[in-house]
Amino acid sequence: MIVIILLGLSIRLILAPYSAGSDLAQFYGFAGTMLEHRACFYSYADASGFWIKGWPYPWPYVYGPVMAYLLAAVRYLVGGSINAFWRDGNYYVYIDPTWAFSVKLIFILADTAVALLLYLLIREKSEKLAVLGAVLYYLNPITIHVSAVYGMFDDLALAFFLLGLYLTRRERLSYALYGFSLAVKHTLVFPALLSIWDAFLNGRRAISRVLFFLLGALTPFLPMMLFCPSSLRELPDLLRGMEVSYTLPVSYSMNGISSLATYLHMTEGRDTLFLLRYWYVSAFILLSLVLIRHVFNRNLVVSTALAYAVFTATYWRVNPQYLVPIVAFLILLAAFEEGAVTILTLFTVVYAGIWPIMQPSAFWFHVHMENPNWTLVHFIDSITFRIFSDEPYVAYSVGLTLLLYALILSSTIPYLKNLKAWLSERERVRT
User: Fold this and answer.
1) Do 192 and 331 fall into the same domain?
2) 3-state helix, strand, coil in the chain (%, to 5)
3) Are 6 and 351 in contact (CB under 8 A)?
4) Which end of the chain is more exposed for a tag (fewer CB within 10 A), N or C?
5) Given a cut of 90, is residue 132 above it in pLDDT?
6) If pLDDT is split at 50, 70 and 90, which confidence band does 422 have?
7) What is residue 47's DSSP assignment?
8) Given 239, 266, 298, which residue is the final one in a domain?
9) Does pTM surpass 0.90?
10) Closest CA relative to residue 353, chosen from 137, 139, 141, 146
11) Are 339 and 404 part of one and the same domain?
12) What digits encode the pLDDT tens for the residues 317-331?
């Protein structure tokens, strides 16, 4: 296990100083706004007047406050800078490598914590399976890309949620961690809902568990509640996210339905937006199947994994960073399930890691770097396929979505027999 951690950590630390995604530049702006306005941060977290705020892009802050606190702390401690300007009709955004590397260190540490937690969670089944799970996560190209190349923090929210699963015997702390993970990034809402469902199914102390869940979710908001409660009025609009639209660029859409609908609209002019607009219908149906399954098989690890699979399979805008939690959750699913489901799950984990290899991933090693490491750029080019056309990415996302649907249905539909038997038994009791 030590060798795996050292290898994965070395790869990340080699790549991290020489690359940066566009979000890291925007994070610098968010950090400045937090340092300036502090508890009133959310009053200034929308995209209006972004240039005056020192933001390079008109992207609002759409997350809980934990990441804003961390970004502000990093900027206060290490400084850094971004340089955004127009030249000859082109817009350039250069990121200080010190800033990019410092922020990515947080994500790399979170990635490492996730790998260790996967190992600890699976070790009760088998030491060999635990090591394999850590390898599949920590050396997976998609997890390396998100934390060390582009720089996004889904692994941070995931680490807190997995810690809650590991500390499940300490119920209060466990539920507080589930709630806290949502204050990091709300994309774990389906697993969080499953944990609340589990709390009520277990009956006794359900209210206590939910209260600690709310305590974990709301504590990061406490400074704002105390010193600038008016700023929280902006939060619902920010967290509601953008309106449903076609997912461009297609190569960054991980939902097969959205990718296909967008591609057909681009190439044939068809109005396919209705396929995206009602994504919540399929999400409700599939999540209901997972909730029913959990009634009869109360393995919280497996059920939360399936809940996040539902989110990834159905949400209309699935970005590459959302694949980091799905890789981790599917590794847990493979470890605790058996038969064809395990094989299909492991294949999906490997399949998810193909995307960064398809990409011209070297782009992130020079687009925001004023002085790129061209040796590393050429090396990344040599180990990636550098596919620029949309069709392979549409095929990839459709394949991923079909795999997730197959996993969810094969893991839940058999339990409908249990539901039918239970309903029949209740009917006999009435008569």
Assistant:
1) no
2) 75, 5, 20
3) no
4) C
5) yes
6) low
7) S
8) 239
9) yes
10) 141
11) yes
12) 999 999 999 999 999
